[in-house]
User: What shape does this take?
Amino acid sequence: MANQTQQSPEGIPAATIVIFRKSSDGGAPEILMTVRSRNMAFAGGMAVFPGGRVDDADFALARTLTSPLNIAELAHQIAAVRETIEETGLALGIAGDVDAAKAADARAMLLETGELAPVLEAFNWSLDLDQITPFARWFPKNENISRVYDTRFYLANLGTGEVEIAADQSENTRLFWVSAQGALDMAENGEIKLIFPTRRNLERLALFASYEEARAQAEAIPVKTIIPRIDDSNDQPMLRIMEDAGYPITAELLETVQRG
Assistant: This one.
């Protein structure tokens, strides 16, 4: 994946996508998670949602589109689409003749070129960004972590049915479907590890009985940039986020926080 974007005081721009599907037993919806390779500099070994940094080519493609969205938001949504294809093989946010075989071929081409624009042209696809709903934005610039990403989170709905997914085996080692509460339970049991933003987002996602409920809340609450802060006003320091962004739990003991 070609990229020349460098970290700046504003952070590294990144996009991640929470992909929903209905559960086979009629229970809580499932979301797609990936376990990052332990060799990755950021969040190595952690369970996260598919995504990655916004590349220069994402901004270039954004500038060619006619949209009411600003260039930065367009580029982040493009990155969410691109990273989803790269990391999972799922073509979301795409309009056109899409099937499993074409998605697999598109993924192979994308992994080779690192750019979405030639893939869209080759398969006669176009972007359908109405399939993607802005959900959150996290920028942990005050935390002591190796790389600071300014990450925009999006929601998308796969619907029903089994689909083929496969980890790319470079950045990620495992893909799995699980309910939001199921992922929290896995973390509690030591089966997976979660960084602070992922845990808070899973707690928020666990509130919803369907993708539609999640999207309704996302559309009702304007996306605000969440910058966690350390609160040492009590005996035990806490890491806190704002109270009015839709999250049921807004603080965690600093000593228990998993960082990237």
Observations:
- Residues 1-8, 39-43 have pLDDT under 50 and may be disordered.
